[in-house]
């Protein structure tokens, strides 16, 4: 493997629907200033109004779909490199979305997600989501393990103690299965699943 370029973007949505064309423009600027990424990881905070974030499911679809659309708009800007959405995971108001270049999709061997809510009553208005994935590095046939964490901690400068407590709870609660217990995907044609 020569190299693997990863773009990690963090964004606080302010509980609003993002404008895909505007977000795509910012992504395109980030990509044009570096090499074209093989993996794009989006760390999103305050993804939707509180009630929608906690209800999840179909309530979050319009909010998260706009980020997928933004990544697909970026493809038009950068040319031939197509991206496949491989996983989205949220806990409360925090989400992580991972996209992989289509030609590398088969290199993703497994994906596992985890999440932990912190904040008021540890219900998840703050917290973290983790995504770990195995990436095959042909021709060496080694699998590299990448872990992406999207976190949203207590705000304001005077909340240092609260942030530190949130961090301790996230580190303690964000747990993945041991490497020998990981399940590969059922089919390579469907690729990774969305959780």
Could you characterize the architecture of this molecule?
With 195 residues, this protein is of the alpha+beta class. It contains 4 helices and 7 strands, in the order βαβααβββββα. It has helices at 20-32, 50-55, 61-78, 160-173; strands at 6-12, 39-45, 83-91, 94-101, 108-118, 126-137, 142-152. The chain has a 4-stranded mixed β-sheet, covered by helices on one side. Strands 5-6-7 form a 3-stranded antiparallel β-sheet. Strand 1, helix 1 (20-32) and strand 2 (39-45) form a beta-alpha-beta unit. Helix 1 (20-32) crosses helix 3. The longest helix has 18 residues, at 61-78. It is globular. Mean pLDDT is 86; it is low at 186-195.
Q: What's the N-to-C terminus distance?
A: 29 Å
Look at the helices and sheets and give the structural class: alpha+beta
Broad shape:
globular
Task: Give the low-confidence spans.
Answer: 186-195
Rg over CA atoms, rounded to whole Å, is 17 Å
Biggest beta-sheet profile: 4 strands, mixed
**Whole-number mean pLDDT:** 86
Helix content: 25-40%
The largest beta-sheet arranges its strands as 1-2-4-3
Q: How many helical elements? A: 4
Q: Give the beta-strand count.
A: 7
How much strand? 25-35%
**Topology as H/E string?**
EHEHHEEEEEH
Keywords:
195 residues; alpha+beta; four-stranded mixed beta sheet; 33% strand; globular
Describe how the helices and strands are arranged.
Layout: E1 6-12, H1 20-32, E2 39-45, H2 50-55, H3 61-78, E3 83-91, E4 94-101, E5 108-118, E6 126-137, E7 142-152, H4 160-173
Parallel strand pairs: 1-2
Antiparallel strand pairs: 2-4, 3-4, 5-6, 6-7
């Amino acid at each position: 493997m020569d190299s693997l370029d990863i773009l990690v973007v963090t964004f606080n949505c302010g509980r609003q629907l993002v404008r895909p064309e505007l977000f795509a423009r910012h992504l395109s600027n980030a990509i044009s200033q570096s090499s074209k990424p093989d993996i794009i990881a989006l760390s999103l905070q305050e993804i939707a109004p509180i009630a929608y974030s906690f209800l999840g499911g179909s309530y979050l679809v319009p909010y998260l779909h706009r980020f997928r659309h933004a990544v697909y708009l970026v493809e038009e800007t950068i040319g031939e490199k197509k991206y496949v959405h491989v996983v989205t995971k949220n806990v409360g108001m925090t989400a992580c979305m991972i996209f992989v270049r289509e030609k590398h999709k088969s290199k993703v061997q497994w994906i596992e997600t985890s999440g932990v809510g912190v904040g008021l009553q540890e219900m998840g208005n703050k917290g973290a989501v983790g995504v770990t994935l195995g990436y095959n590095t042909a021709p060496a046939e080694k699998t590299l393990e990448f872990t992406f964490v999207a976190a949203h901690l207590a705000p304001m400068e005077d909340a240092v103690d609260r942030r530190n407590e949130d961090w301790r709870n996230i580190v303690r609660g964000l747990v993945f299965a041991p490497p020998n217990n990981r399940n590969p995907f059922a089919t390579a044609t469907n690729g990774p699943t969305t959780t």
